[in-house]
Amino acid sequence: MSSGRIDAINAMEELHQLQLEGLQATLNRAYRNVRYYHELFKKLGLVPEDVGTLSDLERLPYTTKETLRENYPYGLFAVKLSEIMRIHSSAGTTGRPTVAGFNRNDMRHWREVSGRVLKLAGIGPGDIVHIAFGSSFFTGGAGLHHGAEELGVTLIPTSSVDLERHARMIMDYGATVLIATPCYALALMETFEALGVGPDAIPLKKGLLGGEPWSEDMRALIEAALGIEAYDHYGLSEIYGSAVAAECHSRQGLHIFEDQVIPEIIDPATGAVLGPGREGELVLTTITKEAMPLIRYRTGDITTLIEGVCACGQATAGRRMARIAGRTDDSIEVSGIEISARMIEDILTPLVGERPRFQVIVTREGTNDIVEVRLELPEGGPDDSRERLKETLVQAVRTQLIDLLGSTIRLICAPPMGLSGVVEHRTKIIDRRFLKP
Q: C-alpha distances in angstroms, 412 versus 79, 371, 373, 385?
């Protein structure tokens, strides 16, 4: 057996031991300090000591986003509120959002793993990093800001300026790395073209893009237009922002930081754990988070775990994941913000006066995301009242979604029964951004 193979086996054994110790500590913390998990364990007749191996993890139930909403805001915190250093929330509107809390140790881990995201892409001291992510709802901006500082790069944290100013700052300051959503990178591409700046004149060398799904075709377009290498990364606000997994220079899947989380792939319909190489829903269990530990958290993201050593030779003990192939639920990310069917329903229901029948279709025109809300108006009432209702609905959608997303929102009102195909078991949100013409 080669020394490289032996090293890989030893590294895997060390990782599994680290994961088991982290899992047992997490289960004990959740059982002792989180009422939801304590009562759940009692109901199942389990105690943390019953989990003696990593395979025993399958005996535990799943945590879902609905669990987070039901325990809003602090019900899943495992430490005193006075120990919480940072609170992040999903972009809820009238419905209950989800909340994530981080204590001092969590912030230390977050900074370190965010630094790994940049390091895997070959970003480090000497680079000038231009961050176009926001730093409020979207944890990616905050986390990668700290990660950049952890690596000692020169940081330009500009999120709330217009596109032309972003472009001019990149040119003036000689930024070598762009951190943004893929859509924003496309918008910058058009801005540079309007300014008459070609890819050879743009100082950028690399792009770290995330916060929304993007295709290989989009990657190729961005790379050619900006003259960069574009890297994907993955994360969730509930865990460590954009720092759960990231691409290296080989770009053969995203390295999962398995010293922070234990990944599983399950059948989204049955909940059964799937074998190696099978596509399914990604489930994550935190093993370092203290403030808000999550046990078997269903992400809703569809992917595949990739076994074996990556060509880059890094993180030999950890697995990789394929780029996200889709979602299991009625939600979608636009400009780094999650839009869910429930969010739209919470906006429309008070205005319509009954449970609305609607469908959301997200398309792309050039570099702009278009969010089209198709709403079936209720029966009854004179034409002028229906027209007033339509105007009210348009204004509500604008004020509650456009300001949040910064995207183009269209409201199309259909007559009664005009959306008869949209029923409870059908998908209400459809993503058509990456369909080839």
A: 46, 11, 6, 17
Lookup: tokens for 276: 């190696």
Residue ranges per domain, the chain? 1-328, 337-431
Check residue 221 and give its pLDDT.
93
- The CATH classification number of 1-328 equals 3.40.50.12780
Predicted pLDDT at 317: 60
Question: Within 10 A of 183 (CB to CB), how many other CB atoms are there?
Answer: 23
d(CA 337, CA 49): 39
**CATH (residue range 337-431):** 3.30.300.30
Q: Which residues pair with 58 in a beta bridge?
A: none
- Claim: this prediction has a pTM higher than 0.90: no
| Residue that wins the pLDDT comparison between 284 and 183 | 284
Q: Do domains 1-328 and 337-431 have the same CATH topology?
A: no
pLDDT in tens, 350-393: 777 677 778 888 887 776 778 888 887 766 555 667 677 777 77
CB-CB contact of 14 with 7 (8 Å): no
| Beta-sheet strands, E only, within 237-296 | 241-247, 254-256, 261-266, 279-286
Nearest-Å Rg of the Cα atoms of the chain is 23
